Amino acid sequence: MMRKIIVAMALMLGFQMSQAQTVNEIFREFRGEEDAVCMKVPWLPIKLIGLFADDGAGQIAARINSVRIMDLSECPAQVQERFAAKMEQLKLEGYEQLLVVKDDGSSVKMWGQMKGEKIKELLIGVSGDDNEPALICIKGNLRMDDLNFSMSENNITLRSAK
């Protein structure tokens, strides 16, 4: 009996692992699509921008190591729909979902790969009818305080827990 339980648990774990994706797999899947734009901004230009930005933006830029962006706004509709479906059912192992905003068929989701109080990797997925589909991956040592923002138009807030 115990053996059956262990085998069943191993199968469930294997199924769960097969459903989880990595950020690299998503970029690989869509970057080759017609009219997809994919770029990576390394640390040096980000640090240089930080030198000339105001205090708050400069401090945040100092904590960013790289930014990877994939823009699918010029892709055919079926690619955009496939991307939206992928974003809707996305399960990333090791990431916490930080924010979900849905409005009239549009969606913005934000995930963070946490290490203690630091966000090592921030992933932002934008998809839906009115938005230009995009995936943005920011690597660095961000703090939750860096993500504090407020949008009064739709009463959307994200505040760090203190």
E-strand count: 8
Uncertain runs with pLDDT below 50, 5 residues or more?
4-19, 150-154
Number of helical segments?
5
State the distance separating the first and last CA atoms.
47 Å
Class from helix and strand fractions: alpha+beta
Helix content: 25-40%
Commentary on this structure:
There is one protein chain. The chain has 162 residues and is α+β, with helices and mostly antiparallel strands. Helices cover 35% and strands 36% of the residues. The chain has five helices and eight strands, in the order ααβααβαββββββ. A six-stranded antiparallel sheet has the order 1-2-6-5-4-3, sandwiched between helices. Helix 3 runs antiparallel to helix 4. It starts with a helix and ends with a strand.
Question: Layout of helices and strands, plus pairs?
Answer:
Blueprint: H1 2-19, H2 23-31, E1 37-41, H3 43-52, H4 55-62, E2 64-71, H5 77-88, E3 96-103, E4 106-115, E5 118-128, E6 134-143, E7 149-151, E8 156-158
Antiparallel strand pairs: 1-2, 2-6, 3-4, 4-5, 5-6, 7-8
Helix pairs in contact: 3-4
